[in-house]
Amino acid sequence: MIGLSACGASHRSRPPEYSVQRVERAFALHGLRLHHARFGPALGVVKLLRPGVEVDVVLGSKSVSWTSISTTDERSRVKHNLVVAWRPRYAKSVSAALRQLG
């Protein structure tokens, strides 16, 4: 009889992938109603926006590292499969929405 055991170290847990609907709900709870852009920046990416806030939701296995934000008066953050950019006046609401996502 052969016994095999696995410690689990070789299996990396994937970070959470936030759905478009979950992102929309979290931002709406904090007063930021996002709308779908007509076109996303790339295949497999859904752009949600409102004046002063943009969220790219990267779906599937695509990496968020391709995204760059070049507007100088905006702040930005990458969180798992999200790339978020916002103007300073929305900082509290965006931070609260990102905490809401977990």
Quick description:
The chain is α+β, with helices and mostly antiparallel strands.
Would you count the extended β strands for me? 5
| Tally of alpha and pi helices | 2
- Helix percentage range: 10-25%
Structural class: alpha+beta
Mean pLDDT: 82
Give helix and strand order, one letter per element, not per position.
HEEEEEH
Structure description:
This protein has 102 residues and is an alpha+beta fold. The chain has one domain (20-101). It is 20% helix and 24% strand. Helix 1 (20-28) crosses helix 2 (91-101). The longest helix has 11 residues, at 91-101. The model is unreliable at 1-10 (pLDDT under 50).
Fold blueprint:
Layout lengths: L19 H9 L6 E2 L8 E6 L2 E6 L16 E5 L2 E5 L4 H11 L1
Antiparallel strand pairs: 1-2, 2-3, 3-5, 4-5
Helix pairs in contact: 1-2
Supply the key terms:
disordered N terminus; alpha+beta; 102 residues
